[in-house]
Design brief:
By secondary structure, this protein is an alpha+beta fold. It has 13 helices and 18 strands. It has two domains: 103 residues, Helix Hairpins, CATH 1.10.287; 298 residues, BirA Bifunctional Protein, domain 2 (2-Layer Sandwich), CATH 3.30.930.10. The strands form five sheets. The protein has an eight-stranded mixed β-sheet. Strands 5-7-6 form a three-stranded antiparallel β-sheet. Strands 8-14-15 form a three-stranded mixed β-sheet, with no helix packed on it. It is elongated, with a radius of gyration of 27 Å. The chain binds one RNA strand through α3 and α4.
Length: 424
RNA sequence: GGAGAGGUGGGUGAGUGGCUUAAACCAGCAGUUUGCUAAACUGUCGUACGGGUCAAACUGUACCGGGGGUUCGAAUCCCCCCCUCUCCGCCA
């Protein structure tokens, strides 16, 4: 969530930003936030004063008792009892106000960065880069959901039998190619200075709130109710939560973590004709990169992450384009997001394979992820960033479709040492 | 799953109702000493929300796993919950 102090000091910027993000009732909400804050401070001042007096009296009573002045002590006691109901009332009011304030703050999305383009939907996203050559496919070319049957490398029917729709079974060279991609992505991340993490795949409620999946996207996660644990929808959740309630030192920056995990998504209500094959799944594999950055450097870090992902796409020889998401299409918590899409030649459409975002302090405020500046007092919120590097199924789809030939599918050169074969 | 023990600052760990404003030690930071390192010594050393100030100094409140209660006063007593550890059982 946004920092209260930021809203107070930058009211106009916040309002402009929220409008860009198509957040309805921006003025109304911000005014309410500011007046609640006013009320909160006023109440706290009153309460603090009463508590200070009460603490004083209590100390005096202790002193009187010690000196054996019982009568005086009794008198003081009855006085103290009076301020009690008063303080109870005030502290109830304080927590009610704070609660309402927090609840309201949770409903306000992050403010977009100035570089975010205006717009209301996917059509308004800015194409930053388009690179690579779209392959020319033979007339016999098949979409990946046919190819996987032809070569018997991914089996949806089997997954259907074991689990249900959206849980494919990877077989033989399909499984090996998948494993090759994971290892390749991890090795590249390590080479780029990321620390490899193998996090838990089930997380508790606190972690769900920490990265913002709860309470809003409750229905999107698989929930093991017996133990009140959630299957992770992305490695972002466990990895970022490593830093929940953490105060870093300034020279701890940059913190770079990468992890491979399966990801589980219920994708409630989002199935349709356009999500055939590997395009959308309940379980899929992904390598995620996460950075915790100094606020002054987070946009450099974002560009660094973007370059890292481009590097992967280029080495995989996939045509790609990069979108700078417009205000209306930007996620709730992001300040700036690049979507990376690869060209899927047989489907003749772009597939999103990565999304890199700077959340600035939006996540860290909720996580209480701070750092101590070397100069000066106190703590400051760090910036968090993450991105997929990369999500496997659509990459796999694009590799299969783009590299198909009359006599098999060519494996990109960079993956061959990892696969142990050159062709499917 | 059964039984027991326990959750206190960055760490170790004291603290059974009021000289606790959380001792002491370690680590950290600053300084002194020093040819350098080490050691020693001195000082400093939590977080959040307020007040105060140009900024500080200073100052109020809350926080000893979480939530409630008893009391003038709770780390300490009571209730509920969560978690960790040990042993047993089960098990890759």
């Amino acid at each position: 969530m946004l920092q209260l102090i930021y809203i107070k000091d930058n009211k106009d910027t916040v309002l402009t930003g929220l409008k860009k993000k198509k957040f309805a009732r921006a003025e109304e909400t911000i005014e309410k936030v500011l007046s609640l804050d006013e009320e909160r401070r006023h109440t706290q001042q009153q309460l603090d004063k009463i508590l200070a007096e009460a603490n004083n009296t209590a100390r005096q009573i202790g002193q009187l008792m010690k000196e054996g002045k019982k009568e005086e002590a009794e008198k003081a006691k009855s006085e103290a009892a009076q301020s009690k109901s008063q303080s109870k009332e005030l502290s109830d009011k304080l927590s009610a106000t704070e609660e309402e304030l927090t609840r309201l703050l949770y409903t306000i999305p992050n403010v977009p960065h100035p570089r975010v383009p205006e717009g209301s939907g996917a059509d308004d996203n800015e194409v930053v880069v388009e690179a690579g050559e779209k392959p020319f496919l033979p007339a016999t070319a098949q979409p990946h959901w046919e190819l996987i049957k032809t070569y018997d490398i991914i089996d949806f029917e089997l997954g259907n039998k074991i689990s249900g729709a959206g849980f494919p079974v990877y077989k033989g060279k399909g499984a090996r190619l998948q494993r090759a991609l994971i290892n390749y992505f991890l090795d590249e991340a390590i080479a780029a200075g990321y620390t490899e993490i193998q996090p838990p795949l089930l997380v508790n409620e606190d972690s769900g709130y920490g990265t913002g999946q709860l309470p809003d996207k409750d229905g999107q996660m698989y929930h093991a109710t017996e133990d009140n644990l959630y299957l992770i929808p992305t490695a972002e959740v466990p990895i970022t939560n490593i830093f929940r309630d953490v105060i870093l030192k300034e020279d701890d920056f940059p913190v770079k973590c990468a992890g491979y995990t399966p990801c589980f998504r219920r994708e409630a209500g989002s199935w349709g004709a356009h999500v055939r094959g590997l395009n959308r799944l309940h379980q899929f594999d992904k390598v995620e990169i996460v950075q915790i950055a100094h606020p002054d450097r987070s946009y450099e870090v974002l560009e660094e992450m973007r370059r890292h992902i481009i590097g992967l796409l280029e080495k995989l020889e996939l045509p790609y384009r990069i979108l700078n998401l417009c205000g209306g299409d930007l996620g709730f918590t992001a300040a700036l997001t690049y979507d990376m899409e690869v060209w899927s030649a047989a489907q003749e459409r772009w597939l999103e394979v990565s999304s890199v975002s700077n959340f600035e302090t939006y996540q860290s405020n909720r996580l209480k992820l701070r750092y101590k500046p070397t100069e000066g007092k106190g703590t400051q919120l760090a910036h968090t960033l993450n991105g997929s590097a990369l999500a496997l199924p659509r990459i796999l789809a694009a590799i299969l479709e783009n590299n198909q030939t009359e006599d098999g599918i060519n494996i990109p050169k960079v993956l061959r040492p990892y696969c142990g074969f050159e062709k499917i």
